[in-house]
Structure formats: structure tokens, C-alpha cells
Amino acid sequence: MATKWDERLERAAQSRGTVVVLCGEGDKDEVVEAARTVGARHGLTPQIDRQPADGVRVGYRDESNVGDSPLV
User: Could you report the per-residue pLDDT of 38-49, keeping only the tens digit for each?
Assistant: First the structure.
């Protein structure tokens, strides 16, 4: 199922980068699920930070480079 965040998540996954998705507390579960779905399509495991009050931070990294975290 495509979500309104897929395009931004796709760009982050393709660049192995980090994106902050602005959303309300009620949408965070949907963003997390979309991040995992997009990551799976690219063979990546997203690093997810639900702590920002106004959204979710998602970082994608190559599994072969475990020590290089995109979240700082």
C-alpha cells in the first residue's frame, strides 16, 4: 500500500540517507511501517527514531556497513 510518505522515503533509501517525516503522533505507526516496507524493497533495514515531537526520523544504511550509522 502506497502512503503519502513513500516518495520521500524512497529518495532517502536510494541515497542511503536520512529523512525527517513531519507528522502527528497518530501517524507515526504508519510512517514506521512505510519506512520498513520501502527499506525491504531496497534490501535495507531502516533506523527509526520516533522521539521527535513533530515527526519520525528515518535513516537507511547498507547492511554491509553496519558501523556507519546515518543517524547522528
Answer: 999 999 999 999
* Parallel, antiparallel or unpaired: strands 18-22 and 45-49: unpaired
Q: Which residues of the chain have pLDDT under 70?
A: 1, 62-72
**Cα–Cα distances in Å, from 5 out to 43, 50, 65, 67?**
18, 15, 26, 27
State the amino acid at position 60 in one-letter form: Y
Confidence (pLDDT) at 68: 52
For 66, the grid coordinates are 553496519
Residue among 19, 17, 10 nearest 56 (CA): 19
